[in-house]
Write a structure and sequence with these properties.
With 395 residues, the protein is of the alpha+beta class. The chain folds into two domains: 7-223, Histidine kinase-like ATPase, C-terminal domain (Heat Shock Protein 90, 2-Layer Sandwich); 229-392, Ribosomal Protein S5, domain 2 (2-Layer Sandwich). The protein is built from eleven helices and 19 strands. The protein has helices at 28-32, 35-38, 43-62, 100-106, 128-133, 191-204, 229-236, 290-309, 322-325, 353-373, 375-392, and strands spanning 2-4, 21-25, 68-73, 79-83, 108-111, 135-144, 147-154, 157-158, 163-167, 172-179, 209-214, 221-223, 249-254, 260-268, 275-280, 283-284, 329-337, 342-343, 349-350. Helix 8 (290-309) packs parallel to helix 10. The two termini are 39 Å apart.
């Protein structure tokens, strides 16, 4: 097991080839019922197309092979995305004889992609093949194996073979696509929507630089946060005079077989009722689930135990409620699992019971340790919570 205050450094794994692609079925069903695959044919589904491509680049970062992603809203309204990872595999695969990249772009599949140090990948849907199927035009350019490779598609169908071009020492993948106007209600991407999500991903993946450029008006932005979730909490807590304590609390851990990891950052303030954001495999879990339940359970227990141990609560006092403990608390919890299970078609509630158990274990151990090593800040936090509980009449 590896633990640190600034977790999330993955183990680099170099193997990534045609054998990693598992075929499910063809793409006709995607064009017939796109909402089943990307949620809707409105703005939400349109932007999900970008997130699906970005998730592949994030996986390269998680595997230790990429540290930069460049996203561009092109002048023609399409999207162009480039990463500096290994590049999608180009070798032919049996028994079809198709190149691995063509299979990735035309077969409805869950490509396990690069195996990360956690045994997880960021994408939660069906990948590049869905984006290809729903685009009137898609081109892929790969720098791998000493050459530049290119191929073009139209509505999911290859219109050129995979072509080996000039030699190069570069590495990475560039995908450009234009959403099909016959499928989507709108094909105009929102700069603000994309920027918000990419900024979020930069927080969740410390050390990964993500840039966004809009060629419609020229307005580039670059997100890069070495401190990860600590920087995220600082972003959500923009008023230093209102902070109950500083620094913020941050910790993380991963299990022994690296199939489950958790990162946590939190800080109390006096200016807001509090804000809690949770993520599973880089996707916002708006409806919460097992990881949120584990966090809230452990948080309430640790705060009550510490307050009694330090004499800020007597044996006769009632326990501080979960509501009081979370008053004014800004927190971000991010878990990554090898086999996430989500409830509902929106996939916004995590169901894995092991996430509840592991998050509880990590929070109990690390939060208790932080409070013990920061007695002045801990005293201020407990005083704030007791005051909040008295004001709400719940203690």
């Amino acid at each position: 097991m590896t633990e640190s205050g600034n977790p999330g450094q993955p183990v680099a794994v170099s193997e990534y080839d045609a054998s990693h692609i598992q075929v499910f079925e063809g793409l006709e069903a995607v064009r017939r019922r796109p909402g089943m695959y990307i949620g809707s044919t409105g703005e939400r589904g349109l932007h999900h197309m970008v997130y699906e491509v970005v998730s592949y680049a994030v996986d390269e970062h998680l595997s230790g092979h990429a540290d930069a992603i460049d996203v561009t809203i092109a002048a023609d309204g399409g999207i162009r995305l480039r990463d500096n990872g290994r590049g999608l595999p180009v070798e032919a695969a049996e028994p079809t004889g198709k190149s691995a990249v063509e299979r990735e772009l035309t077969d409805l599949s869950f490509g396990t992609r690069p195996c990360t140090g956690y045994g997880v990948s960021g994408g939660l849907s069906l990948g590049l093949s869905v984006v290809n199927a729903l685009s009137s035009r898609l081109t892929v350019e790969i720098h791998r194996d000493g050459h530049r490779w290119t191929q073009e598609y139209a509505k999911g169908i290859p219109v050129t073979p995979l072509t080996r071009n000039e030699e190069t020492r570069e590495h990475g993948t560039e995908i450009a696509f234009l959403p099909d106007a016959d499928i989507f209600e709108t094909t105009r991407f929102s700069y603000e929507t994309l920027s918000q999500r990419l900024h979020e991903l930069a927080f969740l993946n410390g050390g990964l630089a993500i840039s966004l450029t809009d060629e419609r008006p020229v307005r580039p932005v670059r997100h890069h946060h070495a401190d990860g979730l600590l920087a995220y909490v600082a972003h959500l807590n923009p008023y230093p005079p209102s902070l109950v304590h500083s620094p913020a609390i941050g910790f993380g851990s991963e299990n022994e077989d690296r199939t489950l990891s958790v990162q946590v950052a939190m800080q109390w303030n006096t200016w807001s009722p509090g804000e809690f954001r949770s993520f599973a495999n880089n996707t916002r879990t708006h409806e919460g689930g097992a990881h949120e339940e584990g966090f809230r359970t452990a948080l309430t227990s640790v705060v009550n135990e510490y307050a009694r141990r330090r004499g800020q609560m007597s044996a006769d006092d009632q326990d501080l409620t979960a509501e009081a403990v979370q008053e004014g608390m800004t927190a971000v919890v991010s878990v990554k699992l090898a086999h996430p299970v989500f409830e509902g078609s929106t996939r916004t509630r995590l169901s894995n019971p092991e996430a509840n158990t592991y998050v509880q274990e990590v929070v109990r151990r690390h939060l208790t340790d932080w409070l013990d090593h920061h007695p002045n800040q801990a005293t201020a936090i407990i005083r704030h919570i007791v005051h909040a509980s008295t004001g709400h009449g719940k203690w």
